[in-house]
Amino acid sequence: ASVTGGTFPAVAGSSPVIRAVLDRLGLLASSSAPVLIEGLAGSGRRHLARALHGALGGILGECPMLDMNVVPPEAMRDALLSLEHEADGVLVASSAESLPPETLSWLLNRIETGQLTGRLVLTLDIAAAGPIAETLRAELAHGRVVVPALEDRVEDLPAILDALAFQLGLTPELIDVCARKALCRQRWPQQIRTLKKQLSAAMVRAAGGVIRKEHLADQAEKDTPDRMSVSLDAGYHDAIRVFRRDLLRHALTVSEGNRTHAAKLLGVQRTYFMRLIRDLGAD
Questions:
Q1: 3-state secondary structure of 267
Q2: Alpha-carbon distance 258 to 275, whole Å?
Q3: Rounded to whole angstroms, how far apart are CA atoms 150 and 43?
Q4: Reported pTM
Q5: Which of 14, 181, 193, 273 keeps 20 to 30 A from 233, CA to CA?
Q6: Which residues contact 27 (CB under 8 A, 6 or more apart)?
Q7: 176 Cβ neighbours under 8 A, 6+ residues apart
Q8: What is the structure's pLDDT at 224?
Q9: pLDDT digits (tens, 9 = 90+) for 124-164
């Protein structure tokens, strides 16, 4: 999409909300300010970071990225220094909400004193709360970009489907019209990541052929026994226990195993979430 602020051919969609984001990114590309890309998990924050990396002279598809969610706190500073050394002028680090307080202070000091070599691009979960997230939003406000949720840009779904198909090695023509309509009518609370997973699963069910409506997950679920009937057979207490356990597992699947994020999705404290896992045997 060619926009006022710049050109980002790797970003699918032309809705007003995504065009506004690309305008903002394009303007930021011409400055030296650190960039904070904020949005829901799975909404395309990393993809936009890679697109910005390409706009700043990086090679598309070869963007060094550090996921701070998987780096131990004691190793965070060394990991950032290593990224700074290896990156080609643009440092992209995701899950900035996982920064320990002392590492955040160290990083902000390097930015303020000009010690940081290269352009810093961070991604942040919009659901993140607490001093780390609020400090990042305040200190990097001039470079903050908010990624719209997928439900706010449903008109982009056809273009996103085509882009995901290419990523998966599938020609868009192999997704038939009925399957496209079914996908575009669904709600995607887990954003683009879940859409990609469902499309990938449909490819397997289609066995290399045309993806049709019956290959989609929601259609496959209709072929399973009625859950209410199964629940009646199990009895009230056992059925509720099974539902609660499945809900915990689904939250962990959506958050890719991150228990803190899974607890936030369910609106409970992490300690209570961990106790539920133990009590319900949701391994």
A1: coil
A2: 15
A3: 7
A4: 0.69
A5: 273
A6: 5, 6
A7: 210, 211, 212, 213
A8: 44
A9: 999 888 999 999 999 999 999 999 888 888 888 888 888 88
DSSP assignment of 68-99, as one string? TTSS-GGGHHHHHHHHHHHSSSEEEEE-GGG-
Cα–Cα distance measured from residue 221 to residue 112, given in angstroms and rounded to the nearest whole number? 53
C-alpha to C-alpha distance for 11 and 168, rounded to whole angstroms: 16
Beta-strand relationship, 65-67 and 119-125: unpaired
Question: Strands, E, within the chain: which ranges?
Answer: 35-39, 65-67, 90-94, 119-125, 144-146
41 is written with which tokens? 């998990």
The answer to whether the beta carbons of residues 66 and 80 sit under 8 Å apart is yes
Dihedral pair phi/psi, residue 37, rounded to 5°:
-100, 115
Write the pLDDT tens digit of every residue in 94-120.
Answer: 999 999 999 999 999 999 998 988 889
Residue listed under structure tokens 């607490």: 130
Give tens-digit pLDDT for 39-56: 988 888 988 888 888 887
Report how far apart, in Å, the C-alpha atoms of 247 and of each of 54, 127, 135, 157, 220 are: 39, 19, 32, 27, 19
- For the chain, the 3-state helix, strand and coil shares in percent, each to the nearest 5, are 60, 10, 30
The closest alpha carbon to 118, from 38, 64, 51, 76, belongs to 64
CA atoms within 13 A on the CB side of 75: 10
Query: How far apart, in whole angstroms, are the C-alpha atoms of residue 103 and residue 41?
Result: 23
